[in-house]
Amino acid sequence: MTARVRPVDALLAALATLAAAAPLRTLFAPDSWVRPALLVVVVVTAVGMLARRLTRSTTLVVLAQVLALVLAACVIHGRGHTLYGLPTPDTVKAFGVLLREAVHTISSYAAPAPATRGISLFLGLVIGLVAIAVDAIAVTRRTAAAAGLPLLAAYLITAANTGTTMAWPYFAAPAALWLLLLGRSGIGGLRRWSAAATGTADDGEGLAGFVSAARVLGVGALVLSLALTPLLPHLPTRFLAEGLGRVTDSGRGGSGSVRVTSTVDVTRNLGSRSTQPVLRYRTDAERPAPLRVDVLDRMADGVWTSTAQGGPTVASAGMIAPEEASAAAAATRVSIDVDRNDIAPPQLAAPYPPISIVSSGGAVRQRDDLTLTVDGQVPEYRVQYLTPEPKAEALAQPLAASAAVGGRTPGLLEVDPASRAALTAFVDDVVPEDATRLQAAQAIQRELRSGPYTYSLELAGPTADGLTPDSAPIRHFLATRQGYCVQFASTMVMAARTLGIPARMAVGFLPGTLGDEKRYTVKAADAHAWPELYFEGVGWLRFEPTPGARSGVAPAYSMPAAAPTAGPTTSAPSQTASASPTRRERPDQETRTASADRSMLDRVQGGWSSLRASGPLGWVATAALLGALGVLLLPLAAVLARRRARRRAADDAARAEVEWQSLVSRLGDLGLAADRSATPRQAGAQLTQRGYLRDESAAALGRVVGTLERARYAPPGEDLPDLGSDADSVVRAVRRGKRLPDRLGAWLLPSEGMQAWSRLGQRMLHPRSGRRH
Amino acid sequence: MDDGLLMVREVTARLESAMNEVIEGKPEAVRTTVTVLLAEGHLLLEDVPGTGKTMLAKTLGQCIDASVRRVQFTPDLLPSDITGVSVFNQDSREFEFRRGAIFANVVVGDEINRASPKTQSAMLECMEEHQVTVDGVTYPLPEPFMVMATQNPIEMEGTYPLPEAQRDRFMARISMGYPSPRAELDMLDTHGGRSPLRDLRAVTDADTVRRMIAAVRSVHASDAVRQYVVDVVSATRTSPELRLGASPRGTIHLLRAARARAALEGRDHVLPDDVQLVAAPVLAHRVILSAEAQLARRDASSVLDDVLRRVRVPALRA
Questions:
Q1: Angle between helices A485-499 and A473-480 (to 10 degrees)
Q2: Which of A265, A282, A656, B184 is 20 to 30 Å from A352 by CA-CA measure?
Q3: CA B191 to each of CA B15, B23, B26, B185: distance values in angstroms, whole numbers, following the listed order
Q4: B2 touches chain A (CB under 8 A)
Q5: DSSP A96
């Protein structure tokens, strides 16, 4: 019994649990929940060791641990609601309140969420349960391999909820501890083998068995990893930094800590993916617009820069009166109230075009491109802006610009020379001959948002003809069709310029996520870039070429009317629903009507990116698919095992035996069994009677039994008929007489399938015995 | 089906129907008797007086056109009465062997437990070895050779019950049991006037029986069935309700009887069902119940049924 205490394994299991739970620290702040959780794990582990010393029953050990977990939770979290530390109905009520609070916190806060008492209790219970599972599987039952599952589950809680990439030690630590556990149980297994081995021959066999087990495991892991990778959805990347948001100061809550780089490098891979809040605001807009920080109009060597001149100071509460705004006759006036601003001066985030600003801090300047700048930190401000709703007729302008834009038209039509040819080919392909300016812009946007272009935070490597992101970023993007918002926006700007439409690049933030009290929170990771195209008499209009899930919503005017009159009509417009599949409401959740129009082909081409874009439905479908696959595991294994056994049968007699065993097993699944000691003849009689078999099916069973008798007991060498069809007809006849739940149960949980899996498990665990039988 | 088995089925069917005419309402006892005959075994008939033990034995003898001898065992019966004796021939002036009662194809030994142990053992040696040795000369017994001994279990005075070792030599033991009321009524009709034995004609002869025995020997017993036989016998040895399990000779007898039983059905291979059918008559007299089982008023047959229910029928080794 003492040997069953296994202190080293128990310690390793506890450490592995803690290591797997450690990344949760990034989800909740402050760390007040850590110490209680640690205590819970210690209690569970100690009780496990004690219980293993006292009993051999795994169930009892687990029960003791669960009891200890409950008691520990009562003592730690149930202060004032327990009777000398023992749970009472009051405790249950109190825990219910705390857990509801935890659920509320989890569903309404972005990471890091406040570690309330409820969260503390919730995490304590979750981590305690994981600790029990790991301890029971790896230590009590000594099957360390399976303990990887609860560990992985604990790890995935964080991985699925964090907005950031997780540092590698978070994965490496529990993985290493798990491997240690696995190694120890492997050594234990080897020791048992050597104790059982009696001669040198056995040693050889033991080694061979170990090697074969290793081979089976290795091949199985490889096949699984290859097979599951395309099947499993990748967790949606919740960060959108695109390399724009820069955390200059890791301190939390300090003001003026975030800066958006005012030059954007199209060639660079994404770096920062911080979830640090940047802005918090309220708005009266139904769908807030992206907040613009800067406008970049010149691109050289793959780097965007701004050529705008500093403008006059605008009076607080003064009208900015943009020249274009007046022209945009149809526009809605909305405002945002920023009550927290961590963007470093001189930058200021505001939707475009702003018409008035009231700020609490230093003077606000207005550049000639209507970008607002500030001299000092402005913690709170209120901006009124216009949401342009231009009429389609107003936008039906000829392609090439006829008038200068603020005298700087040539700069706004400058095309990156390295990519000019590729862009010309691109627009020739995408934009119809006689398109208006709006139609051309819509065509480009639709093309970029549709299937062939993949949103990816990593740029593709060099292409076959030597293109790299560095040498010709836009050509490279058009060739590899992979990039993030900077590439999408740059390409649209350049394509528009190729057609003669003045265009520029805007950088700023997506509207963020809606939280409590109708407040939106913008994180550094919400940084975004989008193109603005100039329409005479209307002004600069925002477009959104970045695919739906990872960008803002395309404005209404940028999408063709219901029946597109121009452009390729092979597939419906692909302004798919934009929400990334988070549980928090996003302000940019727009109608999903368009997504229904997408052809199946598009979906397949879009692959998982379209799944991500298709919202919760897609995830439900994926879960259903995986569930269906899981449900099929046993029936499939049964069919395969039966086939394999049939194939491996040496002669007719063995085949008849296989068929009989399979028939007995299948009838057993349907709740029909003969006595264990029955001879085939007696079994046949019993099954006929108990299964109410008549006429043809009874005769079929009679034939099966007769053939089996000859197979087993007659002189060998006789030719025997195949029993498959008779056996099947017997099973069918019996199944007909059963209720649907029984039939379903027999089909879903065939004992043949379970045996096949358990044999597989046995072979892996005990390769030697597996080889002998 | 080969000719030998065809003949077995046909002849035994005639034999059984002839015997059933005399022995009313006991087809199973008749069948066991024929089975033991074909399996070259000996039969012990054990029951209260007047249930037709001797009648069964005599019927079998009469149905076969072969030599039938009947020995009434008494306490003063000498071994030489069974085996035979060398007597001096005055004419040829040399000893010549006078064959005893045992020299016959079917020997009916009535009330074998009345003879002295010495006589009993002389008889049992002949049964085992199918030969008689007197004064150093060995005389083979005729084939087929079958002893049907009857024994009365309740009259204990002046009897020498067969010890276990000797009972073991009988292949099977059957109890006739009382006939059903209906059969008893029929019996009154047939036996009322004169003995039905007088009308009985032989339906077969010794030579045919010899050929049938040869056919039975050729019946196939697969590995699975042999395993089953061994499993059943060893289960009797481990059963908590039995003080003594069956002997290895019991194993041999069980398989031989099962072969004969399969042949009776005209089958060329033994089924576990055959083994089960003959298990009770073949094994019941070889086992001794434990004290608990006796107190619980169990009998050997029911205990054996339990044992059979516990033993799994082996499948092919796939």
A1: 110
A2: A265
A3: 20, 10, 16, 10
A4: no
A5: H
Q: Please state the φ and ψ torsions of residue B178, each to the nearest 5 degrees.
A: -75, 150
Pairing of strands A28-29, A113-114: parallel
* CATH T-level topology, domain B3-213: Rossmann fold (3.40.50)
Select from B1, B218, B222, B267 the residue whose CB has the most chain A CBs within 10 Å, as the one to mutate to test that interface.
Answer: B222
Nearest to B314 by CA among B220, B224, B222, B223: B224
The CA-based angle A114-A119-A125, given to 5 degrees, is 155
Q: Which residue of B has its CA nearest to A656?
A: B316
Element (H, E) at A673: none
Name the packing angle between helices B248-264 and B206-217 (round to 10°): 110
Number of C-beta neighbours around residue A54 at 10 A: 13
**ipTM for this prediction:** 0.82
pLDDT greater than 50 at residue A204: no
Question: Residues 6 or more apart from B201 whose CB is under 8 A from it?
Answer: B18
As a whole number of angstroms, the distance between CA A466 and CA A457 comes to 21
State the Cα–Cα distance between residues B2 and B269, nearest whole angstrom.
12
User: Residues A123, A18: contact at Cβ < 8 Å?
Assistant: no
CA angle in degrees (0–180, nearest 5) for A590-A591-A596: 135
Domain boundaries, chain B: 3-213, 220-310
Q: Give the integer Cα–Cα distance in Å for A452 and A444.
A: 13
Rounded-to-integer distance, Cα B124 and Cα B171, Å: 12
Give the model confidence (pLDDT) of A693-748 as tens digits: 888 889 999 999 999 888 888 888 778 888 888 888 898 888 888 888 888 888 88
- Measured CA to CA in angstroms, residue A68 lies from A72, A130, A527 at distances of 6, 14, 47
| Token output for B228 | 């089953």
The CATH number of the structural domain formed by B220-310 is: 1.10.8.80
- The CB density around residue A215, as the number of other CB atoms within 10 Å, is 11
A730, two tokens? 């017997």
Residue A428 exposure: Cα atoms within 13 Å on the Cβ side: 6
B231 touches chain A (CB under 8 A): no
| Cβ-based contacts of B272 with chain A (< 8 Å) | 679-680, 713
- Distance from the Cα of A744 to chain B's closest Cα (Å) equals 30
How many CB atoms are located within 10 Å of the residue B71 CB? 23
Q: Find out whether the peptide bond into A469 is cis, omega within 30 degrees of 0.
A: no
SS3 A218: helix
DSSP A83: B
**Amino acid A284: pLDDT:** 82
Give the C-alpha separation, A106 to A211, whole Å. Answer: 47
Q: Please give the pLDDT value at position A203.
A: 43
Distance from CA of B273 to the nearest CA of A (A): 6
B269–A661 CB contact, under 8 Å: no
Least confident among A172-176, A641-645, B46-50, B75-79:
B46-50
A585-632: per-residue pLDDT in tens? 333 333 333 333 333 334 334 444 444 554 555 667 777 777 777 777
Q: Looking at residue B318, what is its pLDDT?
A: 45
First CA to last CA distance, chain A = 31
Residue A149 and residue A129 in contact, taking contact as beta carbons nearer than 8 Å: no
Greatest Cα-to-Cα distance within chain A, rounded to the nearest angstrom: 110
Instruction: Determine contact, residues A364/A323, Cβ cutoff 8 Å.
Output: no
Closest partner residue to B318 among A657, A675, A677, by Cβ?
A657
**Domains along chain A with CATH numbers:** 2-196 (no CATH), 233-614 (3.10.620.30), 622-772 (1.20.120)
- Residues in B closer than 8 angstroms to A676, CB to CB, are 312
Asked if residues A370 and A320 have their Cβ atoms less than 8 Å apart, the reply is yes
Bigger pLDDT: B180 vs A265: B180
Distance separating alpha carbons of residues A386 and A325, to the nearest angstrom: 7
